[in-house]
Amino acid sequence: MIEVYYAEDDETIGKSVKEYLEQQNCKVTVFDRIADVKKALIGHLPTIVLLDWNMPDGQGSELCLWIRERWITLPIVYLTVRGDSHDIVTGFQNGADDYVVKPFDLAVLYSRILALLRRTEGVTHTKLFCDDLMLDKEKTAVYNGQKEIVVSQPEYQILLILMENKGKTITRNQLL
């Protein structure tokens, strides 16, 4: 099932997109504040993020950059009224994978989501987060904020298992 986080402050548009995508068997959570999206992303990664540019507590461009710093492969699509070429180029430079200008056809949006997910299927996330703690699988390093924490290889492996299974019960045998 495709899980969608949608940052949209316009309740009517958010409801319309949510209803349509849920009819296509997607699970959609709509957020009307950037802070709420960030909190949700730290707890759980969806399949894809849809975001509006103008939000009450900030710009979607800031959220896009924040996501890209943490999850390089998480698909991001802008859904926004900002349709001039400068805004579109900025959206892609900030890390968006696609850019859709409002108003848009919901069937076309869904098709674009499916096409994007076909291209990103099987891509794994190299950085895991839990609050301020980040585990970088490429560098096999652990950071608290910007500061690297020195851990032994067994400690790293245990932390990796715990962070990959956040919210799940892990037995002692799974850790050994």
TrEMBL record:
<feature type="domain" description="OmpR/PhoB-type">
    <location>
        <begin position="125"/>
        <end position="176"/>
    </location>
</feature>
<feature type="DNA-binding region" description="OmpR/PhoB-type">
    <location>
        <begin position="125"/>
        <end position="176"/>
    </location>
</feature>
<dbReference type="InterPro" id="IPR039420">
    <property type="entry name" value="WalR-like"/>
</dbReference>
<protein>
    <recommendedName>
        <fullName>Stage 0 sporulation protein A homolog</fullName>
    </recommendedName>
</protein>
<keyword id="KW-0238">DNA-binding</keyword>
<dbReference type="InterPro" id="IPR011006">
    <property type="entry name" value="CheY-like_superfamily"/>
</dbReference>
<keyword id="KW-0902">Two-component regulatory system</keyword>
<dbReference type="GO" id="GO:0006355">
    <property type="term" value="P:regulation of DNA-templated transcription"/>
</dbReference>
<dbReference type="InterPro" id="IPR001789">
    <property type="entry name" value="Sig_transdc_resp-reg_receiver"/>
</dbReference>
<comment type="function">
    <text>May play the central regulatory role in sporulation. It may be an element of the effector pathway responsible for the activation of sporulation genes in response to nutritional stress. Spo0A may act in concert with spo0H (a sigma factor) to control the expression of some genes that are critical to the sporulation process.</text>
</comment>
<dbReference type="GO" id="GO:0032993">
    <property type="term" value="C:protein-DNA complex"/>
</dbReference>
<keyword id="KW-0804">Transcription</keyword>
<keyword id="KW-0597">Phosphoprotein</keyword>
<feature type="modified residue" description="4-aspartylphosphate">
    <location>
        <position position="52"/>
    </location>
</feature>
<keyword id="KW-0805">Transcription regulation</keyword>
<dbReference type="InterPro" id="IPR036388">
    <property type="entry name" value="WH-like_DNA-bd_sf"/>
</dbReference>
<feature type="domain" description="Response regulatory">
    <location>
        <begin position="3"/>
        <end position="117"/>
    </location>
</feature>
<dbReference type="GO" id="GO:0000976">
    <property type="term" value="F:transcription cis-regulatory region binding"/>
</dbReference>
<dbReference type="Pfam" id="PF00072">
    <property type="entry name" value="Response_reg"/>
</dbReference>
<dbReference type="GO" id="GO:0000156">
    <property type="term" value="F:phosphorelay response regulator activity"/>
</dbReference>
<dbReference type="GO" id="GO:0005829">
    <property type="term" value="C:cytosol"/>
</dbReference>
<dbReference type="InterPro" id="IPR001867">
    <property type="entry name" value="OmpR/PhoB-type_DNA-bd"/>
</dbReference>
